């Protein structure tokens, strides 16, 4: 198997860390970006610390593109659902503007800033590159039959719209890139911890399984100009 270069953003989270380890097992070159630097060491691993400001994101994307002119995948694994003070809203009265703004920034703005920052690379590269952001089925407008979770739903729906719109521009500008939104299912992580007791048997996935599925689908994408919004089974999700 040919050696590839994979960029993993949010590499200190459960899925991001599993993805880093998976690529290293495949002998890929891995660029791991996270707020807290990874303790993992490997000859093929290059680690960067980020504060997720626009200036820092742009600087890192430029440096990485210069070091690795051939990038095969960029996986954006940032995400937040709850804090010590706030849980997903069950009723409209619980809507909190600060919680909403924080979720929009982490779940929507930060992933899109990474896509924006890597745009010069995607325009110029000759290497096909799959750019993936972790989305969620709950961000599907047509799939919303239960209500609730206002802020999280909105942040993922907005992420989906931004990436969908960007895919049209990438196609128009003839970029050698594929955008993908990936719903990992309920993964055993800090994000899902408060809700795991309600998960049906067999539906709480290990991060390693999610990383395997994501990597499999990244390696089998068709570069047809269209964006893919899929789940951990590879099934399409309605917008």
UniProtKB/TrEMBL annotation:
SUPFAM superfamilies: NAD(P)-binding Rossmann-fold domains. It comes from the Bacteria. InterPro entries: NAD(P)-bd_dom_sf (IPR036291), SDR_enzymes (IPR052184), SDR_fam (IPR002347). Pfam families: adh_short. One of its GO terms (molecular function) is oxidoreductase activity, acting on the CH-OH group of donors, NAD or NADP as acceptor. This is Short-chain dehydrogenase. It comes from Pseudoalteromonas luteoviolacea S4054. The lineage of its organism: Bacteria, Pseudomonadati, Pseudomonadota, Gammaproteobacteria, Alteromonadales.
């Amino acid at each position: 198997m040919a050696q590839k270069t994979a960029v993993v953003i949010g590499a200190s989270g459960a899925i991001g860390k599993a993805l880093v380890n998976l690529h290293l097992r495949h002998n890929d070159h891995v660029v791991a970006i996270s707020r807290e630097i990874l303790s993992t060491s490997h000859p093929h691993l290059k680690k960067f610390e980020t504060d997720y400001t626009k200036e820092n994101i742009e600087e890192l994307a430029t440096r990485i593109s210069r070091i690795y002119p051939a990038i095969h995948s960029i996986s954006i694994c940032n995400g937040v659902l709850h804090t010590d003070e706030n849980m997903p809203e069950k009723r409209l009265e619980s809507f909190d503007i600060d919680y909403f703004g924080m979720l929009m920034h982490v779940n929507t703005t930060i992933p899109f800033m990474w896509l924006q920052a890597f745009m010069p690379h995607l325009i110029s590269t000759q290497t096909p590159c799959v750019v993936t952001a972790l989305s969620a089925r709950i961000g599907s407008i047509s799939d919303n039959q239960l209500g609730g979770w206002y802020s999280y739903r909105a942040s993922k729906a907005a992420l989906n719209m931004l990436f969908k719109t960007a895919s049209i521009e990438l196609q128009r500008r003839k970029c050698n890139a594929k955008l993908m939104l990936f719903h990992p299912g309920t993964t055993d992580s800090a994000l899902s911890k408060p809700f795991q007791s309600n998960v049906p048997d067999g539906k709480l996935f290990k991060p390693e399984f999610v990383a395997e599925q994501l990597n499999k689908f990244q390696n089998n994408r068709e570069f047809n100009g269209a964006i893919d919004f899929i789940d951990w089974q590879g099934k399409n999700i309605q917008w």
